[in-house]
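thought: user wants a sequence for this fold. calling inverse folding tool.
action: design(structure=
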């Protein structure tokens, strides 16, 4: 296997180099499934904080990765999904409008709950030289939690802003946040308390040391 350091062709397609990465999980979603109303309402409430978080991250040069379910369709296309959510009359349209990806964002399709399971995410993060992940998205007690668990086992530092994840119920969300904070050592401070410029500066000064120490 060719290592990232020796594979210059692939590295040329990953222009970013950042110890911190922002990940948006399952947020490009039409919400046209049975029982979607509670999840849609709770996701709409976090869409604005995530949009602001993304704007601040990109201003600090921090890359953004969209990780989305392939909905069991192995011919899924992320761009088509984005177009569907933006242009068709679907329930999730206002969320997609707030959180639409731009040309510099990365995307990964996942077949199961975790963003790491049978995807290219792990390899992409190695090329980006990431050691700290900021996880946002839905559902907090399922896909975000499974992704956080897999990230923790891979020794990533974790931030899971409490105002940037949503679950079907508030009780489920709070339980997931408490678990991630206690067991996975995740920092669950609100997104408004994250200072990207300071994080980027500290990472640069420390030459690759984790930008946010574990608790």
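)
observation: tool returned 215 residues.
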């Amino acid at each position: 296997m060719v290592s990232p350091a020796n594979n210059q062709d692939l590295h040329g397609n990953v222009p970013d180099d950042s110890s911190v990465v922002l990940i948006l999980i399952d947020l490009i979603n039409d919400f046209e499934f049975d029982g979607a109303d509670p999840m849609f309402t709770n996701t709409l409430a976090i869409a604005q904080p995530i949009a602001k978080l993304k704007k601040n991250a990109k201003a600090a040069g921090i890359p953004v990765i969209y990780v989305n379910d392939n909905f069991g369709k192995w011919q899924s296309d992320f761009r088509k999904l984005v177009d569907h959510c933006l242009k068709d009359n679907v329930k999730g349209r206002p969320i997609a409008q707030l959180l639409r990806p731009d040309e510099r964002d990365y995307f990964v399709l996942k077949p199961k709950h975790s963003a790491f399971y049978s995807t290219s995410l792990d390899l992409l993060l190695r090329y980006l030289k990431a050691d700290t992940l900021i996880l946002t998205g839905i559902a907090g007690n399922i896909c975000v939690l499974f992704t956080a668990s897999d990230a923790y086992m891979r020794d990533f530092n974790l931030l899971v802003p409490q105002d940037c994840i949503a679950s079907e119920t508030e009780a489920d969300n709070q339980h997931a946040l408490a678990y991630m904070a206690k067991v996975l050592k995740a920092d669950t401070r609100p997104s408004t308390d994250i200072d990207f410029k300071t994080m980027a500066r500290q990472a640069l000064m420390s030459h690759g040391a984790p930008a946010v120490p574990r608790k």
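thought: summarizing for user.
answer: Here is the designed sequence. Helices lie at 8-12, 37-59, 78-87, 93-99, 121-128, 140-153, 170-182, 196-205.
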